[in-house]
């Protein structure tokens, strides 16, 4: 049984999951094979989103694994996300049904609002300024709550929300958000957000917990950081394991991406030990730098956010 966080719904969510967000470049059979390998080595928590184009092959691979008796539906934890062009109250249910159909599932374990913004229909991944609109948070949340009541999703939450936005949501939520999924690693420690979410009983899940070393917007600096490397050699672990353990020690779950079976195993093998207080102190001194800060939905010309600072309500680095 995987080590789990207990959500405010009472459900268990495995603390290490596999983010399927960036393997679109692989041929389809290889993408499916990545998921099958992950099930085989013990992953039970899978993260996807409409915008990742991974729901289809993830669903195929999970269906095959269930049919082969490798895993039962109740042992899996599957998250998907509402893309911003569907963040309209009347589009939530159809969008969720499309995700369920692509995933070949009857229900999701968790459904998240992907970003705190609404995009005009037809907008692509790089929206134009006139396609950016403020999110109708209350209307969209009510529609998500209705999906829970219909049994189509077990828990609902948000992604890329600042503390301020979490507090706004909590003011009217009948079903409080179970999770806030944000980029978090030693170069973006999200201290204020973690504190706020802890008090509000909202679990934080860290995406790109390794800092996305190979992505154009990411950085290899975290895994190459001398402090991380030193702590790793002291514990006889890899830098990635130290960075993941740092997240877990801070009470968050982590969803690293990997296409590689050896690294998948390495990323799951982060239990049964802890970083010391001194390790934590050293990591807390690492300089904070934004990575994927959401600038794709910020515009000086129009839309709700002029800059990433605006999007994050001035909380970056806090
Ligand atoms: P690969 O698929 O070749 O394993 P993040 O989850 O922070 O976005 O980072 C994902 C990236 O980190 C992927 O490019 C992945 O490459 C790489 N990666 C995943 N696990 C490890 C690891 N244990 N050590 C080094 N790099 C890793």
Automatic annotation (TrEMBL):
<protein>
    <recommendedName>
        <fullName>NADP-dependent oxidoreductase domain-containing protein</fullName>
    </recommendedName>
</protein>
<dbReference type="Pfam" id="PF00248">
    <property type="entry name" value="Aldo_ket_red"/>
</dbReference>
<feature type="domain" description="NADP-dependent oxidoreductase">
    <location>
        <begin position="22"/>
        <end position="286"/>
    </location>
</feature>
<comment type="similarity">
    <text>Belongs to the aldo/keto reductase family.</text>
</comment>
<dbReference type="GO" id="GO:0016491">
    <property type="term" value="F:oxidoreductase activity"/>
</dbReference>
<keyword id="KW-0521">NADP</keyword>
<dbReference type="InterPro" id="IPR023210">
    <property type="entry name" value="NADP_OxRdtase_dom"/>
</dbReference>
<dbReference type="InterPro" id="IPR036812">
    <property type="entry name" value="NAD(P)_OxRdtase_dom_sf"/>
</dbReference>
<feature type="binding site">
    <location>
        <position position="114"/>
    </location>
    <ligand>
        <name>substrate</name>
    </ligand>
</feature>
<feature type="active site" description="Proton donor">
    <location>
        <position position="52"/>
    </location>
</feature>
<dbReference type="InterPro" id="IPR018170">
    <property type="entry name" value="Aldo/ket_reductase_CS"/>
</dbReference>
<feature type="site" description="Lowers pKa of active site Tyr">
    <location>
        <position position="81"/>
    </location>
</feature>
<dbReference type="InterPro" id="IPR020471">
    <property type="entry name" value="AKR"/>
</dbReference>
